[in-house]
């Protein structure tokens, strides 16, 4: 195998495939990047048992072939080379890399005869990358880290009634993003639980001004955008029926400036112990929201002006859980709906900047002894 490629182009491709290189494993095939040629372009693939990524790059292919090299080694070498033409050749078990006056000789690894990642001959669901990335960021933080609740470690993709519903919950809060979307009829009334890590890696790879095509590949899903493909395993478990959890019957409604509430929640956590959940008491009365927090080293009180409908209320929350939902709302003002001090709070953006998108965040209150 022999090819020539610009340093920047190769580095860009390496940054992509490194997303599926295992950083802590004893399995050698998961530490490698696999090079091959495809339609006179350079193909690079990596996989770690959870996801597989393949990307194509423009290169001058002098001699077709395949090779495998340690991912961290070639990445460090290429990163330190100047922005010039890089020449790479596999010759007699050695990989020769040269760029201007720099020359490296690396030991080649055995090329693992893996299953190729290719776009299946099926219909695809298409979504704008900026919309997908925004939706991932508005939901991923509400997944759980508890592996005994495997379904809740991922994000539910539910295709129903002309919408893509992305849902994450961990038992204490629910994040729901609803996107109006045209998709093939084959996808109607289907749902997949996609691992959080797979979606985060994909969101870091793709550019905002392109689209993602989503394909079903037997029991897995394949994501494709521009020159990159990612195959990810779905979580084969049943998701919780989130629709029975989100029940918006409110007695008190509050409209508040998002920036003011975030700043107040930030300050309310200054005196908290980093190792413990910081609880805040919220009092709503006479068009004012009062936040109180106390710890062994002191206490804090914040007062925010609000628009209020309904009765006054005393309630308590985990400050971080509440703040996560407020941050995720893409509007200058947000709406908070309350029923009682024992019922969940529902948070909505009031003037979303993105047409055809709706967001709902539910957070459970904390019951405090009086």
Automatic annotation (TrEMBL):
Gene Ontology CC: one annotated term: cytoplasm
Keywords linked to the UniProt accession: Cytoplasm, DNA replication, DNA-binding, DNA-directed DNA polymerase, Nucleotidyltransferase, Transferase
Family (UniProt): Belongs to the beta sliding clamp family.
One Pfam assignment: DNA_pol3_beta
Residue span, DNA polymerase III beta sliding clamp C-terminal domain: 250-367
Name the UniProt record assigns to this protein: Beta sliding clamp
Organism: Anaerococcus lactolyticus ATCC 51172
Stated role: Confers DNA tethering and processivity to DNA polymerases and other proteins. Acts as a clamp, forming a ring around DNA (a reaction catalyzed by the clamp-loading complex) which diffuses in an ATP-independent manner freely and bidirectionally along dsDNA. Initially characterized for its ability to contact the catalytic subunit of DNA polymerase III (Pol III), a complex, multichain enzyme responsible for most of the replicative synthesis in bacteria; Pol III exhibits 3'-5' exonuclease proofreading activity.
The keyword Cytoplasm belongs to this UniProt entry's keyword annotation: yes
Subunit structure: Forms a ring-shaped head-to-tail homodimer around DNA.
Domain DNA polymerase III beta sliding clamp central: 127-239
PANTHER family according to UniProt: BETA SLIDING CLAMP (PTHR30478:SF0), DNA POLYMERASE III SUBUNIT BETA (PTHR30478)
Domain of life, per lineage: Bacteria
InterPro entries with a match to the protein in the record: DNA_clamp_sf (IPR046938), DNA_polIII_beta (IPR001001), DNA_polIII_beta_C (IPR022635), DNA_polIII_beta_cen (IPR022637), DNA_polIII_beta_N (IPR022634)
Residues of the signal peptide: none
Record GO terms (molecular function): 3'-5' exonuclease activity; DNA binding; DNA-directed DNA polymerase activity
NCBIfam families per UniProt: dnan (TIGR00663)
Domain DNA polymerase III beta sliding clamp N-terminal: residue ranges: 1-113
One BP term from GO: DNA strand elongation involved in DNA replication
Localisation per UniProt entry: Cytoplasm
């Amino acid at each position: 195998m022999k090819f020539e490629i610009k340093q920047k182009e190769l580095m860009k491709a390496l940054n992509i495939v490194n997303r599926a290189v295992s950083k802590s494993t004893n399995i050698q095939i998961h530490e490698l990047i696999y090079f091959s040629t495809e339609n006179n372009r350079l193909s690079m693939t990596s996989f770690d048992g959870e996801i597989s990524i393949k990307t194509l790059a423009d290169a001058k292919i002098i001699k077709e072939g395949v090779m495998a090299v340690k991912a961290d080694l070639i990445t460090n070498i290429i990163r330190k080379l100047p922005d010039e033409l890089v020449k790479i050749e596999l010759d007699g078990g050695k990989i020769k890399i040269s760029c201007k006056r720099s020359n490296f000789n690396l030991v080649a690894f055995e090329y693992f005869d893996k299953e190729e990642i290719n776009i299946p001959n099926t219909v695809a669901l298409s979504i704008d990358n900026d919309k997908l990335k925004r939706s991932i960021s508005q939901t991923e933080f509400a997944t759980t880290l508890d592996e005994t609740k495997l379904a809740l470690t991922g994000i539910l993709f539910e295709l129903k009634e002309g919408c893509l519903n992305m849902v994450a919950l961990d038992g204490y809060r629910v994040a729901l993003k609803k996107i109006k979307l045209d998709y093939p009829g084959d996808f109607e009334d289907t749902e997949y639980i996609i691992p959080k890590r797979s979606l985060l890696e994909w969101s870091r790879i793709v550019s905002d001004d392109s689209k993602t095509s989503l394909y079903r590949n037997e029991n897995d899903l394949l994501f494709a955008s521009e020159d990159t493909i990612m195959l990810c395993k779905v979580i084969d478990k049943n998701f919780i029926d989130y629709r029975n959890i989100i029940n918006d019957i409110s007695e008190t409604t509050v409209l508040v400036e998002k920036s003011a509430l975030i700043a107040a929640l930030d300050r309310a956590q200054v005196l908290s112990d980093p190792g413990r959940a910081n609880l805040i008491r919220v009092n709503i009365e006479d068009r004012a929201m009062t936040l109180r927090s106390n710890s062994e080293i002191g206490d804090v009180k914040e007062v925010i002006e609000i628009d209020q409908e309904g009765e006054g209320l005393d309630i308590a929350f985990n400050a971080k859980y509440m703040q996560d939902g407020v941050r995720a709302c893409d509007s200058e003002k947000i709406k908070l709906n309350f029923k009682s001090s024992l019922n969940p709070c529902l948070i909505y953006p009031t003037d979303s900047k993105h047409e055809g998108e709706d967001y709902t965040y539910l957070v459970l209150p904390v019951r405090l002894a009086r």
